[in-house]
Each structure stands twice: as structure tokens, then as C-alpha cells.
Amino acid sequence: MAVKVWGMNGITPVIDRSAFVHPSAGLIGDVILAARCYVGPLASLRGDFGRLELRAGANIQDSCIMHGFPGTDTIVEEDGHIGHAAILHGCVVKRNALVGMNAVVNDNAVVGESAIVAAMAFVKAGMIVPPRTLVAGVPAKIVRELSEQELAWKIEGTRSYQDLTRRSRATMIETEALAAVEADRKRIEMPELLPLSTLKAREP
Predict the structure, then answer these.
(1) Are strands 141-145 and 133-136 parallel, antiparallel or unpaired?
(2) What Cα–Cα distance (Å) separates residue 16 from each residue in 11, 23, 139?
(3) Residue 172 and residue 71: Cα distance in Å, rounded?
(4) One digit per residue, pLDDT tens: the chain, 204 residues?
(5) Peptide bond preceding 139: is omega within 30 degrees of 0, i.e. cis?
(6) How far is CA 90 from CA 37, 114, 147, 167, 189, in A?
């Protein structure tokens, strides 16, 4: 599946051959995607000011935005996980960290290794999120350390996106919609992956 990228000021985006970028995503200028990265539909990675980098196994999901000031690097380190419609601006998301849906991580902030930024949170400029902690709120504040269950759930979720990278490369095709649902319509078969709230509700 062809991906259109946009060079700028003589700098062209770099996409590792094992990564997947949806054709509707926008990659401009100084953007670097390492092995096994996933970039979802309508994500915008605007490397027209500063450098944007996704390291191995990271994902940035649909409608996310990455941007930064000139001379800055906006980085998602290895196995970083950026939820739907999140915004990263001039910040660093450390290895194995998760930024939740619709969260914003602002300039010079650092999300520590294996930390979680809750959905809808605002991580203000310059904030340092400690490793293995949960932050939430507007502005974001440290809530507590993460449990082993939460850390395991995050790792499993990121692996599902690494698998999605492979499945998308192998099976996604542009096609025509059907006019009606087939009588024997299949479902996408994959290992069970549950919301964290569902897992916690199952606890005795």
C-alpha cells in the first residue's frame, strides 16, 4: 500500500521497511520511523520545524498529532504507545510509556519509562512524569505508582499494535464496500484484549 510523504527543505521522511503507515496519515519533513512502528489513519507528523522520531515498536494511533519547535526533537521511544487523538508537542515519551486518548503532552515534558498518562490529561510544559506512575487531570498530577497488572496490560496492548503493524502490511487492501452484510460474515480473529476497567471488574 503506497504511502505519500512530503519532503521539506531538502529533508525527506524515513520509514523503516517493517513499519506500517496508513496512506491517509501525513508525514512531512524531518520524520524518522524505526522498525515495526505503526502510524494510524489521519495521524499528522509535521516535521517542518523540529525532528519527530518514533523508535522501534512504537505506535501513534489515528488522528494523533506530533509537532515541535525548531531545534527540538519530539520522540516516542521503544514500545511507546500513543492513544487515539493524542497530541505530542516538543516532548519525549520514554520507553514503554503510554499516552492515553485525547491527552496532550506539551513542550519539554518527559513521560518516564513505563508511565501512563490518562486519557484527556494535560501534561504541562516541562513536567517530568516519573517512571511507572499514573498521571491524570488538567493539569496532570501524579496519582500513584502503577500496579503490576496495569504494567502487564500496557505491554499486552502495545504488542497488539505491533501485531496490527504486521497484519496491516500483510492483509490491508483498498477495496469496494459491500452493499449488504453477508449471511456468514466472519469476525477478525485475534487473542482476547480487554479494557483495563473490565479486567479490574473481574477481580474478586
Answers:
(1) antiparallel
(2) 16, 15, 36
(3) 36
(4) 678 999 999 999 999 999 999 999 999 999 999 999 999 999 999 999 999 999 999 999 999 999 999 999 999 999 999 999 999 999 999 999 999 999 999 999 999 999 999 999 999 999 999 999 999 999 999 999 999 999 999 999 999 999 999 999 999 999 999 999 999 999 888 777 777 778 777 776
(5) yes
(6) 20, 19, 29, 31, 38
What backbone phi and psi angles, to 5 degrees, belong to 157? Answer: -65, -40
d(CA 39, CA 44): 9
Residue of 62, 65, 53, 36 whose CA lies nearest to 158:
36
**161, amino acid identity:** Y
pTM above 0.90, yes or no: yes
Hunting for cell 452484510 — which residue is that?
181
Contacts of 166 (CB under 8 A, 6+ apart): none
For 148-176, b/e burial (b = at least 16 CB within 10 A) is eebbebbeebbeebbebbeebeeeeeeee
CA distance 13 to 200: 41
